[in-house]
Amino acid sequence: MNTTALIVIDIQNEYFENGGMELVNPIAASVNAGKIIGHFREIKAPIIHIQHISPDPTKMPFFIAGTVAADIHPNVKPLLGEKVIQKHFPNSFRETELFDYLKANQITELVVVGMMTHMCIDATTRAAVDFGFSCTVIGDACATRDLEINGVTVKADDVHHAFLAALEFFYAQIQMTEIYLAQN
Q1: What mean pLDDT, rounded, does the chain reach?
Q2: N or C: at which end does the chain have fewer Cβ atoms within 10 angstroms?
Q3: 178 pLDDT band (50/70/90 cuts)?
Q4: In this structure, what are the phi and psi dihedrals at residue 22, rounded to the nearest 5 degrees?
Q5: Catalytic residue list
Q6: Pairing state of beta strands 109-115 and 4-9?
Q7: Could you give the CA distance from residue 154 to residue 161 in angstroms, rounded to a whole number?
Q8: What's the pLDDT score for residue 117?
């Protein structure tokens, strides 16, 4: 029995070209996530797709249920039988069935890919470790965007690497796609 599961977080059309919240390099990240998904399918290990849906489109006017923008991107489309969990918050565990599903399937280790590094990847990985899971984040299978604070723009690459470095300090092992695939 596999005790490792893949968590694919929010790789949705909203984050790609013409989406409401385009990220930097979402295609490259989604292609790498697709490679990791392919590996998990090959070894018949659990894959859980997380899909963010706006709880209130008047306050959060993106990821609106039933729209193409909220759909999971074709590069990582779930296959029939793969678990899909909808969420309304950055932390994929908050008010979802994720924790119970992982425990019911005796999962102890998580591999995490998805979007956005500074938000849902960070929140979910930290929560997972707090719940007792061991985590690996595939850094080049995640993407984020430029952020602004006090009139200063922080480039997506800097945001991405800062959050990965922070996660690696305590919460997760950070690996790149090809290295992970070569070792697993």
Answers
A1: 97
A2: N
A3: very high
A4: -60, 135
A5: 10, 87, 120
A6: parallel
A7: 11
A8: 98
Rounded Cα distance, 156 and 147, in Å: 7
CA distance 173 to 182: 16
Q: Which amino acid is at 127?
A: A
Classify residue 106 by its DSSP letter.
T
For 33, 115, 144, 158, the CA distances from 24, given in Å and listed in that order, are: 15, 11, 6, 11
Write out the H or E segment, with its range, that includes residue 9: strand 4-9
> If you ran DSSP here, which 8-state letter would residue 68 be given?
G
Share of the chain above pLDDT 90, in %: 95
Pseudo-torsion of CA 38, 39, 42, 45, nearest 10°? -110
pLDDT, residue 106, reads 97
Token pair listed for 100: 């119970």
Distance CA 108, CA 30 (A): 25
User: Which residue's structure tokens are 């793969």?
Assistant: 82
Query: What pLDDT score does 2 carry?
Result: 86
Q: 92, 117, 91: which is closest to 83 by C-alpha? A: 92
CB-facing half-sphere around the CA of 56: CA atoms within 13 A: 2
Tokens of 164: 């990965």
* Cα separations in angstroms, 139 against 21, 68, 87, 180, 182: 20, 26, 22, 10, 15
